Amino acid sequence: MSTELYSDLKPDLISKLDSYIDNNKPSKPSCLSNHQIPISISNLETIKKTNEPSYIYAGDFSSGYYYCNYYRHSNGNIYVMNFYMQKFDEYYLLEEWEKQLKRYETWVKSFEESDKTNPIQQ
Q1: How does pLDDT run across 8-38, given as a tens digit for each residue?
Q2: pLDDT average, residue stretch 1-13
Q3: Where residue 117 falls among pLDDT bands split at 50, 70, 90?
Q4: CA of 19: how far to CAs of 22, 56, 86, in Å?
Q5: Residue 5 dihedral angles phi and psi, to the nearest 5°
Q6: Separation between Cα atoms, residue 103 and residue 105, nearest integer Å
Q7: Radius of gyration for the chain, computed over Cα atoms and rounded to the nearest angstrom
Q8: What is the mean pLDDT of the chain?
Q9: CA dihedral 26, 27, 31, 32 (to 10 degrees)
């Protein structure tokens, strides 16, 4: 799992990714494993601070056969780009992706609160 932001994208790559998003409908997002969500949340905050086309790791599935990157489109929107075996496959809307991240954060807060009120007896 990487936290490196790539912002030195070549114009032909930007054009290819932007064109795909502009000409295709988004898919429904896959679900991340709980252990990936904290880095996914952190990397999303990193790319939100950029203003230029760039990408950063968002998560992976099926032992790495599928993986996702956050991608900041040249129009300023952020999308989740899904790759299969290093080949671009589909994209998701960030709003749909963020729903699972928020559910996870809610679950963690709930767990932490219940842990404080119900300590494990030793």
Answers
A1: 899 999 999 999 999 999 888 776 766 777 8
A2: 85
A3: low
A4: 5, 19, 19
A5: -90, 130
A6: 6
A7: 16
A8: 83
A9: -50
Helix (H), strand (E) at residue 46: helix 37-48
Instruction: State the pTM of this model.
Output: 0.76
Is residue 47 classed as helix, strand or coil in its secondary structure? Answer: helix
DSSP letters along 5-45, please? -B----HHHHHHHHHHHHHSPPBPPPPPPGGGHHHHHHHHH
| Site of tokens 């928020």 | 102
CB 89 within 8 A of CB 82: yes
b/e string for 30-60 if b means 16 or more Cβ within 10 A?
Answer: bebeeebbebbeebbeebeebeebbbbbbbb
Distance, in Å, from the CA atom of 35 to the CA atom of 109, rounded to the nearest integer, reads: 15
Pull the structure tokens for residue 108: 């963690």
